[in-house]
Amino acid sequence: MRPWVAAILYAVLGAITFVVCFPLLWAISTSLKPKDEIFRWPPTLWPENITFESYHELLFGGSVASAPGAGVPPSAYFLTWFANSIIVSVGSTIISITVATLAAYSLTRFRFWGQRSVPYIAILGYMVPSVIFVFPMFLTMVSLELTDTLFSLILGYVCITLPFCLWLMWAFFRGVPIEIEEAALVDGASRLQVFRQIVLPVALPGIIAASIFSLIVSWNDYLFGRVFMNSMENLPLTVGVMHFFDGTHVDWGLMMASSVLMTLPMAILFGFMQRHLVAGFGAGAVKG
Amino acid sequence: MKFRLSDRQVGVLFMLPLIIAVGVFLVWPIAEAVRLSFVRYNPLRPDDQPFVGLDNYLFVLDDPLFWESFYQALVWTGWSTVLQALIGVGLALLLHQPLKGMNAFRGLLLFPYIVPTVVIALNWRWLFNSEIGIVNHLLMSAGVIDERIAWLSTPSMAMASAILLNVWKYTPFVVIVVLARLQTIPTELYDAAKVDGAGALRRFRDITLPQLAEVLAVVIVFRTIWTFNKFEEIYLLTRGGPGTSTYNLALYAFDQSIANLRMGVGAAAGVIMLLLLLAGSMLYIRVSGFGREDKAA
């Protein structure tokens, strides 16, 4: 490639990247401004006086336990919501991945009746929008008296994470050669030994990719949390931060600081796992 | 004590959790949604669920808001999908160039896909804030506009902002899929074309595009179905407003179920969405050849 062509390409890429990243850069900039600077017109592109007061309010703004009940600002719940989101994302991911991995292995290594319909079920489940699942699941939770519990949210998220975990693990296991397993079986290893000692280590990249997708989907969900949960202390982060709009005065600094903190765990996962992610996308397993 | 499961038992045992999970998390909610669509259900009076036949469907089909939502869903889906496909292919071609440091660009440009919708909606409301938003400031200081635009409280501008949000978040999806496909096109094809004297444009038209056609068709069907049914992107940005100008079917179903306490009507709207989706999936299966012997094996 000629140098001037490369230079133009870099310039174009740089410009596009800047535009794409701008909303997040602007969120970071706003989150670091003192309150009076946020409302200044014309706005300053980068804070003149950097302050961490918005972050401080979210992270150390007083705990809910010390002063429960009315009068507690929503920001005091931030860490509780954060923990809730971690619990429900990890919980639903563990269920979906375990079920999907076992089934995908079975589907690619054994023959049985109805086997061919499973991928169709997965692709269908993968396309059904959450708004169709959410009310029947909610009414079921009502009759099981599980509403407003983190457990109900974990179960709800299985609806939206299981189909694509199954799809991904199925695609993955189809690509894993069967010969080593057969050799081990001939040598007298049991099927379960083969699964634990040979299959699982080989499947690890697929499991990691599927887990990341599942974590992202459940961490980002809003609808299930909105319908299932009531109490402030049980909300996931996505539903919780929308309560920052409740008052008459919108604190954009607080809002942008929580945006940044909410994106951070996903950004870290994404950074570490980018290679696995692309592998997963390649296998055609994405939800959006 | 040591006992060995037979191969067959292991196979069945491994499938068991999935069979249960599909029953509980897929079949049950959908069946329940279908049942709800035939009863009158007010969540405040859960014990009173009279069967009303097709009344809920007739109500929905007779409701001007349903048709308005349907039309707006088409506008929202059409624009979003076309823009995502065009920008996505362009970006993928750009990111496919053999340049140093390309991985960093790839990472940054794919990033929006994993940002929570709530975060994007919050950022959008702030960027497009009519009083002190940066977008108005930049457009005004560049001389593009003279007065502040009330982005989220003008119907057409609210729809445009929502489409822009959708394009921003989901174009990376197109990029990733197309990029993966680009990397599997044999370079010999290009070498041969070069020897034959084909220019860059010619090579794009005669080699790249035909090779991408299949994967593009699949991506477009997927994006169409998903975009059509999106809820959170619109709800969190505009709540369907101003007025009902950004309602789509998902918002309509949600609103009937939650705000109007007509779960049956909401479910009927959901079932209609499901039927549209089934039609779309048929299209997907045809387009992709998914399930054909050579692909499924």
UniProtKB/TrEMBL annotation, chain A:
Q: Which UniProt keywords apply?
A: Cell membrane, Membrane, Transmembrane, Transmembrane helix, Transport
The UniProt transmembrane annotation reads 7-28, 81-105, 117-138, 150-173, 194-219, 252-272
Where does the protein principally reside? Answer: membrane
Bilayer topology reads:
Multi-pass membrane protein
Entries under PROSITE patterns matching the protein? ABC_TM1
- Spell out the Gene3D superfamilies in the cross-references: MetI-like
Gene Ontology cellular component terms for the protein in this record: plasma membrane
GO BP term (any one): transmembrane transport
* Compartments it resides in: Cell membrane
**Highest taxon, organism lineage:** Bacteria
Report domain ABC transmembrane type-1 positions. 82-273
User: Is Transport among the key words of this record?
Assistant: yes
What the entry lists under CDD domains is as follows: TM_PBP2
Family per record? Belongs to the binding-protein-dependent transport system permease family.
- Quote the protein name from its UniProt record: Carbohydrate ABC transporter permease
Q: Which organism is it from?
A: Neoroseomonas eburnea
Automatic annotation (TrEMBL), chain B:
Q: Would I find Transport among this entry's keywords?
A: yes
Protein's GO biological process:
transmembrane transport
- Presence of the UniProt keyword Magnesium in the record: no
SUPFAM superfamilies named among the record's database cross-references:
MetI-like (SSF161098)
Where does the sequence pass through the membrane?
12-31, 73-95, 107-128, 263-285
List the InterPro entries. MetI-like (IPR000515), MetI-like_sf (IPR035906)
Provide the primary localization: membrane
Q: Where is the ABC transmembrane type-1 domain?
A: 70-284
Location of the protein in the cell = Cell membrane
What's the protein's topology in the membrane?
Answer: Multi-pass membrane protein
Family under the similarity heading? Belongs to the binding-protein-dependent transport system permease family.
Q: Show the PANTHER family listed in the entry.
A: BLR7065 PROTEIN, SPERMIDINE_PUTRESCINE TRANSPORT SYSTEM PERMEASE PROTEIN
What is the protein name for this chain?
Sugar ABC transporter permease
